[in-house]
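Recap slide: DNA-binding transcriptional regulator OxyR, sequence and predicted structure.
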Amino acid sequence: MNIRDLEYLVALEEEKHFRKAAERCFVSQPTLSGQLRKLEDELGVILIERTSRKVLFTSAGDAMARQARQVLKEVRELKNIGHYFADPMSGEIHIGFIPTVGPYLLPLIIQDLRSHFPRLEFYLYEEQTQSLLKKLEEGLLDCVVMAELANIEGVGSLALYEEPMWLALPQHHPDALATQLPLSHLKGQKMLMLADGHCLRDQAMGFCFAGGIEEDTRFKGTSLETLRNMVAAGSGMTLMPKLAVPVAHDAAGVSYRPVIDPIPQRIISLFYRHYSVRRPCFNELAERITRLISSALGE
């Protein structure tokens, strides 16, 4: 038994498909299948029921995959310890971003980070909040950049910036003539929202409910760009994070206006496992990102 065998087993348990698991591990399907058969022979138990239609894990396979995942997590932590003592700002770093942050933050920071920290090799991922937190816990990600949420356990965080949300409305809308809009002015309006699973949805809805604004339940967007296009088509209005607002506040059929009294906003932070030995690295990354993004937010 070796580490690579455990990686094959975990990949197959998560993908439930031999070809997809093999592609993920960068090996041929026969290689992956053959190594798992050897693992079964070594253990003396059947881990996987192989059928023509799907992959089923036995009880032994489920237990083995759970333990393998923990072993791989510890192996990654051992590697991190080695990198930390050799050079805290070197080696691979795997960072996750939520979809309402990644597309707008990364273009502003990634080239600078690569230049400023040349010995770090950045691997970037974009997924929804719960998936990112799960991968952070399992050690598949070193840190995650996302909005602050209540009751997140087992992680530490470094605040990066506060991001206001602006109102996006069709350019022909009467309120598009205003310089800024009090939240109370929108009472009774309906707002387009992202679908469940996006933390921005929960944050935006909190402000909307407090201001007497209802959700337009006829449509739920899968991305900010989908919502932007719906607004441009005259199908409603929505709240947009400031980094997603174009420099020209009237563009492509959409007008963007700041909301005040109160200002709806969210805190974007870098999250990491409490026990991670890479905390000094995270501190430097957070400080650099905060410095880079302040000008983009007009601070």
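The mean pLDDT is 88.
The CA atoms of residues 13 and 118 lie 36 Å apart.
(End of recap.)
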